[in-house]
Design brief:
Layout lengths: L32 H5 L3 H13 L23 E6 L8 E6 L3 H5 L16 H15 L3 E5 L9 E10 L8 E10 H7 L9
Antiparallel strand pairs: 1-2, 1-5, 3-4, 4-5
């Protein structure tokens, strides 16, 4: 039997966000509140790397993120371009690791969110990405992928804001980990450990 805590209602976004600090028109998370909500050690490693690139209250630039530093995670690393005008909430997968092919059955680099074979999950991902851009804060969560190939999987994800000018979010660094729902159920008797 599938643990219902792994499958949030399609109209509910499960995220945990940091707090606003500092002066000016940007926000940055304080401390490690989000990190402590992450379930998987791989998520924490990618998050810690991103935090190490934040300097003087400013978000990292794309150039600050080196593939050489993220080699074990590259198969499910993505860069998602935020439309500066936010027309129709369009987000484009600028670059996606080869591990996504297994779940999507196609190359997703260059695709807009609405072009991905994820059915009703498009709305979910637009809400997640809007939240990152609007709040200027990283987010993390777990959902079902929504793809026919991965119906049996839980998708643990983090989305981390990047900015060329340090404040306006123009790119989002993503890291996803796909785990069989049965493996998650077997590894945890406490459902509270499931939520990010």
């Amino acid at each position: 039997m599938v643990n219902k805590t792994l499958m949030p209602h399609p109209n509910i976004l499960i995220i945990f966000m940091g707090k606003k600090i500092g002066a000016g028109n940007y926000t940055m998370i304080k401390g490690n509140a989000l990190r402590h909500q992450m379930v998987l050690p791989e998520q924490k490693t990618v998050y810690d790397y991103w935090r190490s690139k934040c300097r003087d209250g400013r978000f990292p630039r794309r150039a600050d993120i080196s593939p050489n530093d993220l080699v074990p995670f590259l198969p499910t690393i993505s860069f998602i371009e935020a439309n500066a005008l936010k027309q129709a909430n369009r987000y484009k997968v600028r670059l996606a690791g080869t591990g996504f092919w297994t779940h999507y059955g196609q190359e997703i680099t260059g695709c807009y969110i609405e072009q991905l074979p994820i059915g009703e999950r498009r709305e979910y991902w637009n809400r997640v990405l809007n939240q990152v851009v609007d709040s200027r804060k990283p987010t993390a969560g777990v959902t079902r992928p929504g793809t026919p190939r991965s119906a049996h999987m839980a998708q643990f994800w983090i989305r981390l804001p990047l900015s060329e000018n340090g404040t306006d979010i123009n790119l989002i660094l993503g890291f996803d980990q796909f785990i069989k729902v049965s493996e998650v159920e077997n590894s945890s008797q406490d459902s509270e450990k499931i939520f990010a």
